[in-house]
Amino acid sequence: MKILDRDGRLFGKISIIDVIVILVVAVLALAIYVKTQMPQTGTSVTTTKVVYQMKLNNQPEYMLSAIQIGDEMFDKERSTGGSLGTIIDIEVSPGTDQGELDDGTVAYVPAEGYYDILLTIEGDALVGSDGSVALNRIYDLGVNSHRNFNTKYAYFLGMVTDIQIQGAD
Fold first, then answer.
1. Which helix (H) or strand (E) holds 16?
2. At residue 27, what are phi and psi to the nearest 5 degrees?
3. pLDDT higher for 77 or 107?
4. Is the confidence at residue 42, as pLDDT, over 70?
5. Which of 9, 24, 53, 113 would be 162's cystine partner, CB 3.0–4.6 Å?
6. Where are the beta strands (DSSP E) in the chain?
7. What's the whole-model pTM score?
8. CA 14 from centre of chain
9. What span, in angstroms and rounded, lies between the C-alpha atoms of 84 and 138?
10. What is the separation, in whole angstroms, between the first and last Cα of the chain?
11. Does residue 114 sit in helix, strand or coil?
12. CB 92: neighbour CB atoms within 10 A?
């Protein structure tokens, strides 16, 4: 008995094309099983709670009602659109601006109708061994960085003034 007969069938019973299709289906089924049933290793990354403060200088009065405790922070230009944390505290002080005095000197004077706002924000971040902080796993955060941020109802330029890593000594 020949392995392949003149019609191309294996041992005279099954086509060689059928054998190839059965092998491909078996390999795909095995790959799906391995992907779904085998334990994954090295994929869990722990995040750390980070509290940072952001200062908004000379904001108009309507901004006081547009930013609320509990609002989530975003920066759609520099991230995947995920949250950069939640506002947990808001401090408001009168705004100031540079003005020329009668004697010709320049000094900071009160800016009527404008306010300085200090936001305290809590978020989850990856903290590197060098102290680097990456909010939302990809958004690098640094002290003294000026960036455009937004909440659900407000868009503003903020400067990060302080970063505290929870649990760090």
1. helix 16-37
2. -65, -45
3. 107
4. no
5. 53
6. 9-10, 14-15, 48-60, 86-100, 106-127, 133-135, 139-141, 146-150, 155-165
7. 0.66
8. 56
9. 10
10. 80
11. strand
12. 14
